[in-house]
Amino acid sequence: MRVKARVYDVDSFWEFVHRPENADKHLELLDGEIIEMPAPGEEHGFLAGLFYHHFLLFDPERKMGVPTVESGYYTLDDHYTVLAPDAAFRLRERADAPLNKRWVSTMPDIAVEIKSPKDSLAQMRRKAAIYLRHGAQLVWIVIPDKKNVEVCRLDDNGSIQNEVINADDSLSGESVLPGFELELSSLFN
Questions:
Q1: Which helix (H) or strand (E) holds 125?
Q2: 154 lies in some domain
Q3: Is residue 128 part of a domain?
Q4: Tens of pLDDT along the chain (189 residues)?
Q5: By the 8 A CB rule, do 140 and 110 touch?
Q6: Domain limits at 78?
Q7: What is the CATH number of the domain that holds 115?
Q8: How many CA atoms within 13 Å lie on the side-chain side of 1?
Q9: Rounded (10°) CA dihedral 49, 56, 14, 139
Q10: Global pTM?
Q11: Is residue 147 part of a domain?
């Protein structure tokens, strides 16, 4: 007899991750299935911190929006997926005041995913598609081994465009954060 695995939603996942035995685990929810990820390495954490730092330096008083590191995001039309981008930025008009104690019920405007050794680019692009199809405007997939970033965005037809930015170029906040520029050489030195 085949036993069906439990399908979690946002609320039951919240309860699950806050059990004492799960306190030190890094978990995400993807289509109702809990995905456990190993703790990121030092390089990964350093890069996530740099993105947060640059977002905060660009908008120190948080007038444009809210930067975060590894916060949970989901959408009201999908209660079976909670993603935790390594860094993110959400525009002020889409941010709650005060900040959420629980996960954010809207995707960030910019999501930053940093590739770990165990991640495949296909997995990362799948997550990028989820962010974009649920309201994110930009997804930056950081690939430390190649010292580049894949920028993902939707085109006018709703198709995902991928553009690779190399270490000697810079990332742009485009229309999400006009004027934001991040030299990749400052990340990969």
A1: helix 121-133
A2: yes
A3: yes
A4: 454 578 999 999 999 999 999 988 999 999 999 999 888 889 999 999 999 999 999 998 889 999 999 999 999 999 999 999 999 999 988 877 778 889 999 999 999 999 998 889 999 999 999 999 999 999 999 999 999 999 999 999 989 999 999 999 999 999 999 999 999 999 987
A5: yes
A6: 40-186
A7: 3.90.1570.10
A8: 2
A9: -80
A10: 0.92
A11: yes
